[in-house]
Specification:
249 residues; alpha/beta; 7-stranded mixed β-sheet; 11 helices; 7 strands
Amino acid sequence: MLRLGEKKNPKILFLHPFPYDKNFWKYQFDLKNEYYCIFPDLLGAGEKGSETLFTLEEMCLDILNEVEEDRIHLVGLSMGGYVAQRMFEIAPQKFQSLILMDTKSDSDSNENKKKRALDIQKLKKVNLREYVLNTVENAVSIKTKNERKDKLEFLIDISEKQNSNGIISELLAMQGRLDMNSFIEKIQKPTLIIVGAEDKITPKETMQELHKKIQGSEFHVIENAGHLSAVEDADRINLILKNFVNTNE
């Protein structure tokens, strides 16, 4: 687990998407100058890549057991958003606010379950680079593909370093996660919703519905960004995060 900044500052816990690790948040590391930032690896990723056959529930409990702080602003993107929602439900007393990026509250549809099963089959048959190249390119905007080659390579590099068995276990964990809609509608704490305008995995219409379900939530669409908005337009994301945290501290 990476911890940056001074403990006296507002605390932000960042939960990364699939199939990356804590280094996904590289473009948020400089927030350490104003905040105390916590960047864990989720089960199956990075330093925990050898961990296999776990549930999303265990992913949540693993982080909760490691993070003793409270009054935390909890950030989750995609898979990290699934984990963040359930953590927020399990231990609401620990969190000051919830920040959901390019994620959803629904459990997997049958169609998505089939897709994850196919992804697992692919991972067993092809090398990891072939799998992650397709995964990363599908997740970013046209502008990122054409004009932000450094960020595309950054994402590919992180995902290539992951453990195939850890990735398979994360796919199974996401496939079996809970539907969070009934919980989402009960949230009373400050909530921020962010989505990339070109997100094909959790489209802005899906995120708008999530925004409508959470009373008083704040909603932002990031132009020229896809599913991985925190990397694709880090300057815009960091400004939104800072304004929201400062307002709700």
